Amino acid sequence: MPILDPLKRVQDLRRAAERRGGRSASPEGRTPPGQVLTEKFPVLTYGPTPRVDPATWRLKVWGLVEAPGEWDWEGIQALPQQEQTVDIHCVTRWSKLDTRWEGIPFREIAALVRPRPEADHVMIHCYGGYTTNMRLDELMDDDVLLAHRYDGLPLEREHGGPMRLLVPKLYLWKSAKWLSGFEFMQGDRPGFWERYGYHMHGDPWVEERFG
Ligand SMILES: Nc1nc2c(c(=O)[nH]1)N[C@H]1C(S)=C(S)[C@@H](COP(=O)(O)O)O[C@H]1N2
Ligand SMILES: [Mo]
Fold first, then answer.
1. What is the pLDDT of residue 133?
2. Ligand 1-lining residues (CB < 6 angstroms)
């Protein structure tokens, strides 16, 4: 049995309470520690903004899966879609409430490629070379999308269009823009920002910002 860190325990309980409270929770209650609410949608990209055409876009899935796969734009759009309104949190200290996204749940992809039992992490790859790492069990959560629409419109290029990952429960650097692939792995490995000292996990409610 893991030993419970009392501080983490209190924070987990508060988060669970907020989840139960859903959208009725006060804005303060929905803002993680150290964050400030914004109405804007800032753009944060390291390096140049890739230009990715849906006509040539591909999603590749490889590594520890039974059925490695590749999808083109038409193929991915044929998968089940989900619309959700969620809060997002950037490690540079802005949070934005009630952002509306549409896309394909990650678990639809996972069901098709069938992760091997030993797979427990995924490296997320992007056009332009950006990477970020995530736990497989967290990618399987209901609210993780391959997102291609924001606020009722096709996702803008600056925000990762035509396709980005959306992981609302972690700091936004995990929500990789210009998504190109998933590499299923055994064990964790740092992605781009994680190698420069960002936290391997990145939970905004317990301020996993660095290290
Ligand atoms: N491919 C790629 N994805 C990326 C980034 C990036 O530089 N390249 N920046 C990350 C960071 S640090 C943040 S805070 C969010 C910002 O998303 P936004 O520009 O849509 O606000 O994208 C994340 N995804
Ligand atoms: Mo960021």
1. 98
2. 42-46, 90, 126, 128, 130, 159-160, 172-173, 175-178
Rounded Cα distance between 64 and 88, Å, is 30
Instruction: Please determine, for residue 10, whether its predicted confidence score (pLDDT) is greater than 80.
Output: no
**Distance between CA atoms of residues 49 and 32, nearest Å:** 29
Among 59, 202, 89, which Cα is nearest to 138's?
A: 202
For ligand 1, pick from 35, 40, 45 the residue to mutate: most ligand atoms within 8 Å of CB: 45
Q: What is the mean pLDDT of residues 17-21?
A: 56
Candidates 131, 136, 127; CA nearest to 191 is 131
Q: What DSSP letter does each residue of 64-87 carry, written as one string?
A: SBSS-EEEEHHHHHTS--EEEEEE
> Any bridge partners for residue 95, and if so which?
37, 89
For ligand 1, atom 13, name the residue with the nearest CA.
173
Tens of pLDDT, residues 73-110:
999 999 999 999 999 999 999 999 999 999 999 999 99
CB 172 within 8 A of CB 91: yes
